[in-house]
Amino acid sequence: MSTDSADTNPAPANVTPIDPPTLTTKRLVIRPYRLRDADETARLAGHEKVVDTTLNIPSPYTPDAARDWIGTHDEMYQTGAGVSLRIGLKDSDAHVGGVGLRVNSRHSKAELGYWIAVDHWNQGYATEAAGAMLEYGFNTLNLNRVYAHYMMRNPASGRVMQKLGMAREGRLRHHVRKNDAYEDLELYGMLRSDWQKRQQGSSP
Q: What is the pTM of this model?
């Protein structure tokens, strides 16, 4: 799971609202959260192994807390602050995780974050969902840069970033504190120009 931290740059005075998207891939439907998703979101995202590799998921994660969080999304979209989507399987609608972008429109950049339910690890869902979110960020939101980071003890998240074609940009030493211990973060990023070259290279 990619860690998820706030960008402290203030929002511009004139914000552009975001129309909540629904994205589809070969195996997934990636859509806005609904209040009825709260119980399952709390159960899946609140698993100790998910909490351990992310920064902002509370523990314990209660259904009420999940409902409160989902309730903030209307304002997030209205202010153009970001996108947060539920990852579901196309064939069964099973909830397998979440993916989002925290947008800084002043600098035309966003932080990519994702988590996958433990029962669905190692099936490529994070890469598939995050790839769809990158495409949305560059093609629809017209971002110039998307970045992400992960705790070094969670190399699986780094492999997702590498598969997406993101470039390693460095290490943020003791950048966050988790469970009373300081953690190093590995930083990855992709520019619009990188994305365009990658898409041109994959064209027949």
A: 0.91
